[in-house]
Amino acid sequence: MTITAIVLVLISTFMHAGWNFFGKKTSPTLGFFFLTMVAGAVFFSPFVFWQWDLIRAFNREIVMLLFATGLLQALYLWGLAEAYRAGDMSIAYPIARSSPLIIVAISSTLLGQQSTISPQAVIGIVMIVVGCLFIPLPSFRDFKLANYQNRTTAFALLAAFATAGYSLVDSHATELMRDLSNASGTPLASPWQVSLVYVALQSAFAVIWMVWFIFSTQKQRLAFRQMFIKQWRIGLLTGVLMLGTYSLVILSMAFVSNVSYVVAFRQLSIPFGVLFAVIGLGESLKRPKIVGVFITFIGLIAVALG
Fold first, then answer.
1. What is the average per-residue pLDDT within 19-45?
2. Most CB atoms closer than 10 Å: which of 85, 134, 262, 284?
3. What is residue 10's predicted lDDT score, i.e. its pLDDT?
4. 291 occurs within a structural domain
């Protein structure tokens, strides 16, 4: 990873833990996250019109990738909301953030990109996964499968699979967008312009998928209306943080040889997330959680330096 990529992802990790904290504390529901996506899409929409020549140059493949990332983003937010409703953020968040590493690393291997992943980075990825397996445990003696067979873990894993999916889709889609050029061969947009346009479009396409779940029944429509009246301000703030976070991640993908590095280093948000949950939500801080966060952090350093 380059210094530029590391700095961009480092800033995004703090912001990511922050909007997850607001989501858990305020209203861990799909309706709340739908509100944040709408708010983020509206806030970032001027960038879409600013780069209209780029939008006009989209081909069918880019449009299909946008529909795919929108669906995966919707599934991610649904899994995250249900995991937070069922259990502690300091348990659900690390699981949702660490598991994509395995999925993306395997996918990169299947796509023939394994040569760009160094042995040190592989060791770091393994350490991150092991560390996050310790975090949910009440004690080291409770390291058994039964402690992971619950609703919190199941939906956190759904969020993880969706994260891995949209990370791979987004890497490919933004690469195609950066390659778009005019008749003279000049790129239509710089990497940072592509990142701002992409997060606006990603959130808009996620809203397209999510609207069917939010307004499918009268009960859900009423619940959303009540939530909107009480929490639209915090929803707006969370939405801006959410999309601002991912715009930095999208931009960082232009400065790495393999998207697995970005997905791995983003896990630095895990210590931040656990810290926010312990301090802001009063969740417990047991020894396995401390050790797990430490191992995860060392793994992150190995990935960053690899």
1. 85
2. 262
3. 84
4. no
Which structure tokens are listed for 36?
A: 């944040």
By 3-state DSSP, what share of the chain in percent is helix, strand and coil, each rounded to 5? 85, 0, 15
Alpha carbon 259 to chain centroid distance?
A: 13
Counting Cα atoms < 13 Å in the Cβ hemisphere of 278 gives 13
Domain of residue 63 covers 3-113+144-285
- Helices and strands of the chain, counted as H and E runs: 13, 0
Q: What pLDDT does residue 110 have?
A: 59
Assign 20 to helix, strand or coil.
helix
Report the number of distinct structural domains present in the chain: 1
Let me know if residue 162 belongs to a domain.
yes
What secondary structure letter does DSSP report for 142?
G
Burial of residue 160 (number of CB atoms within 10 Å: 0-12, 13-18, 19+): buried
In the structure encoding, which two tokens stand for residue 161, read together? Answer: 């699979």
Q: For position 130, what pLDDT does the model report?
A: 84
Asked if residue 121 is part of any domain, the answer here is no
Residue 6's contacts (CB-CB under 8 Å, 6 or more residues apart) are 265, 304
22 vs 28: CA distance, rounded Å: 9
pTM: 0.81
pLDDT at 20: 84
Mean pLDDT, rounded, for 79-86: 90
What CA–CA distance (Å, rounded) separates 188 from 186?
6
